[in-house]
Amino acid sequence: MRVPLVVILAGGEGRRIGGGKPLRELRGERLIDRAVRTARLWSGDLRLALREPGQVPGLDVPVLVDDHNIAGPLAGLGSALRAAREANRDFALTIPCDVPFLPPDLGPRLQAAIGNRLAAVPASGADLHPACALWRAETLDCLPAYLASGRRSLIGFAEAVGFVRVEWSGGQFFNVNSESDLAEAERRLDSEIEDLDGLPGTGPGNSRP
């Protein structure tokens, strides 16, 4: 199966965290840089979906500018689907810039699960995570009718085109929306480091895996 075009959704204003969310740092690394590093696990063909061209400086990643007539993350998905079609990619995989613990197997598992559906959406328990989903490029043709219905949610669009849900644990889709969320993400990273320190062969003088 061909690798997808990966589009990082980073056009939100991030008002609850004081603005400029993609540029906020987690352990000295910008959220957007962490997202790019994660996205490269699944494809070398990346795009950055923004509301304005200069929102995120300092990245060597092509920028897609969202349609201002579409509100919310659906605008980023529209940009992703158009870019996938233009790049002759069968799929667009979207991920938000503010979900720092995405599972490394996200892309492969969604591709393995999509079958003949138009979308594959991660789920954890009762929660769906449609901003982290795999979409067939042909779903672009379904977007005008959905917009004409007056609906704007990603979950609603996934339901309209038909999707398969793929289960993961919920903690992997924790997203950073506020200062307290950022602090919680820092605590999670601290906990991961402590867990590594407790493994055999990871003490002083030994290299971690």
From TrEMBL:
InterPro entries: MobA-like_NTP_Trfase (IPR025877), Molybde_CF_guanTrfase (IPR013482), Nucleotide-diphossugar_trans (IPR029044). Coiled coil: none annotated. The keyword Metal-binding applies. One of its GO terms (molecular function) is molybdenum cofactor guanylyltransferase activity. GTP binds at L9, A10, G11, K21, D66, D98. It comes from the Bacteria. Keywords: Cytoplasm, GTP-binding, Magnesium, Metal-binding, Molybdenum cofactor biosynthesis, Nucleotide-binding, Nucleotidyltransferase, Transferase. Its EC number is 2.7.7.77. Mg(2+) binds at D98. Its cofactor is Mg(2+). The keyword Acetylation does not apply. It catalyses: Mo-molybdopterin + GTP + H(+) = Mo-molybdopterin guanine dinucleotide + diphosphate. Pfam families: NTP_transf_3 (PF12804). Gene3D superfamilies: Spore Coat Polysaccharide Biosynthesis Protein SpsA, Chain A. Residues 6-156 form the MobA-like NTP transferase domain. Transmembrane segments: none annotated. It is found in: Cytoplasm. Signal peptide: none annotated. Belongs to the MobA family. Transfers a GMP moiety from GTP to Mo-molybdopterin (Mo-MPT) cofactor (Moco or molybdenum cofactor) to form Mo-molybdopterin guanine dinucleotide (Mo-MGD) cofactor. Monomer. The N-terminal domain determines nucleotide recognition and specific binding, while the C-terminal domain determines the specific binding to the target protein. This is Molybdenum cofactor guanylyltransferase. It comes from Sphingosinicella rhizophila. The gene is mobA.
